[in-house]
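for the record, two folds in this file. i put them one after another cuz i was lazy. first one right below, seq on top, structure tokens after. the second one comes after a little note so u can tell where it starts
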Amino acid sequence: MIARIWHGWTTPENADRYEQLLREEIFPSIAAMGVDGYRGIQLLRRSPANAGEVEFVTLMRFDSWDAVKAFGGEDYAAAHVPAAAREVLARFDQRSQHYELLADLTP
């Protein structure tokens, strides 16, 4: 299993709008791609005290490197950030990080 991790930051004023965009448009469009070996996505949100920004982390799961490449293309680490997301994000990772998932103790 391969985990693809990406970070984006927005203002507190745009945070709910960005979360809604992810849930209602971006995540469904990823699922609709029908990539064989795509196993879902998780969304994390954090508002550090006095930071003035809200951090979002997405964690996607794939069965294999081939599935990651089917999703991301030749430059599979490049971040896929739609124009609507760029409008509300203050900054974001240009490249995603990939890790091999060695253990999952989820019941």
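(here's the note) second protein begins now
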Amino acid sequence: MEKMATVKWVDGMSFVGQTASGHAVVMDGPPDIGGQNLGPRPMEMVLLGLGGCTAVDVMMILQKGNQDVRDCRIEVSAERADSVPKVYTKIHVHYVVTGKDLSDAKVERAVGLSAEKYCSVSKMLEKAAEITHGYEIVAID
């Protein structure tokens, strides 16, 4: 198995994670457990990973479909279990795609392909959580 990430304790509840591609991120816990709020919580990183993964898919599909996308924002909402482990039980991914003369059918198709076929993070998380998707198109002249 290939090592893909390293997480090193810094102080309190602060950690620095480094990826195999050489990028680093600070993660921290909330003050009530000894953190200093210096970075995102690890569970927030999971949602960021989902948003980033599906954003790449959707943008690649829309660009290949010759869509004039000017902006793409992914809003991820989630609910967690009440008891430990507090896993995500429901996740909603909402896409806000802004562009000129965007095809509703192509945006819907891109979102669907990401959710059903391409987004590795989504496919992994759907084993533990109910994931739903929605989108809106913001038209510009």
